[in-house]
Amino acid sequence: MTTPAHPSAPALPAYDRTRLTPGIVHIGLGNFHRAHQAVYLDDLFALGEGHDWAIIGAGVRPADAAMRDALKAQDCLSTVIELDPTGRRARRIGAMIDFLPVERGNGALIAAMARPEIRIVSLTVTEGGYFMDSAGRLDTGAPDIQADAASPDAPETAFGAILAALKRRRAAGVPPFTVMSCDNLPGNGHVTQQVVVGLARLSDPDFATWVEANVAFPNGMVDRITPATGARERAMAAAFGLDDPVPVTCEPFRQWVLEDHFPAGRPALEKVGVVFTEQVHAYEAMKIRILNGGHAIIAYPGGLMDVDLVHEAMEEPLISAFLDKVEREEIIPIVPPVPDTDLHDYYAVIRERFANPEVADTVRRLCLDGSNRQPKFIVPSIRDNRAAGRLPLGLILESALWCRYCAGTSDAGTAIAPNDPNWGELTVRAQLAKDDPAVWLAMSEVYGDLGSDPEVVVAFAQALRALWAKGARAVLTDYLAG
């Protein structure tokens, strides 16, 4: 993985990795987990604490096998490069000590989670990986869910594997592990519980009742901007003397807020900056509305104006001013108070993070998966403004920008490659909405009953027609001029 004599090569972890023992199985070894949870644990281990909480990595998708091969070849070490504008810093994270085989039926994963020393099973399976329907319930018609319900002893999903392991533990008299979602979902613990219990009900209602009564699903808020890995990121690793095909780059900022609900025990993460609180929901609402909503606000005008990188979008005066106006007038005023936090100060930090040129995050990544993200990051803010008697024209314009983006071309006519799991359906609907904007708002799985709000319908139609007639640049100019 490295040439030892290279002058820039980051040192290996100072703690003795051979003395680590596992306490966590983590499913979903993408970049975010390796730049977030794994880093916090690495920091804790470096203090000489928590050495019985090492991670065993796992994946349930065929694509996870390539990550396993890459990490196993370098002793499960991950390269994490912090992209500070004042200088890049690389470190090698040693918190993971094994990566299970990726296989049909998930036998190795189930066996590992059934081991008594595993006290936490954590997840990063993306916002869209929870099989939730538009009403926020388990989508029992999803093929993968139906397959797991029919074959609970040979499951294909992470949730089915969790159930199979819990059933083995119960039969053996071993207390259940805690299930900890690290995905960017409102109420991620509640969501995970609904999916796991709902799946169990399809095959064993009595066991589902036991899971609901005995297994902990703490809520948590996670935050760190972590771009995808490509040639640029691999070249950064090489500059540090590392031959690593899967390095992780990330911003310096990170945050983790958790409910302290771990009946089987937990590592002392408060010693390395994790906040334990009963008010996770307040931090979560702040982050989802201000940061994730902010990402959407800059993403779609950026995409339509052929801006490639997020910091470049922040350098575009119209996009930057659009973000400021919507955040300060329509989002921050409806975000509930957060302990020991000034929301305007928090937003100022968000602006700095978005503008960090070292991160080189892409506008396309922020535009990804709008059909899952808009109902979580934008629509709730529209709804709260309406409940307060306000018509949030900026947020409605953001929604029209998303619709215009999904039509498949930028304002200059550049083709936009598919960028959503439902891209085909969205593109057809967006093109129909050019003549009948109400077609877009009729997506009840995204907008709920907002599509029948007359003022929202009129404002959306005006915004969308203006985008088609004049383009994003002119429409933002008009909006900012009042």
Automatic annotation (TrEMBL):
Residues 23-271 form the Mannitol dehydrogenase N-terminal domain. GO terms for molecular function: oxidoreductase activity, acting on the CH-OH group of donors, NAD or NADP as acceptor. One of its GO terms (biological process) is mannitol metabolic process. Residues 280-468 form the Mannitol dehydrogenase C-terminal domain. The keyword Acetylation does not apply. Keywords: NAD, Oxidoreductase. The keyword Oxidoreductase applies. It holds the Pfam family Mannitol_dh_C. PANTHER family: MANNITOL DEHYDROGENASE 2-RELATED (PTHR43362:SF1), MANNITOL DEHYDROGENASE DSF1-RELATED (PTHR43362). This is Mannitol dehydrogenase family protein. It comes from Ancylobacter polymorphus. The lineage of its organism: Bacteria, Pseudomonadati, Pseudomonadota, Alphaproteobacteria, Hyphomicrobiales.
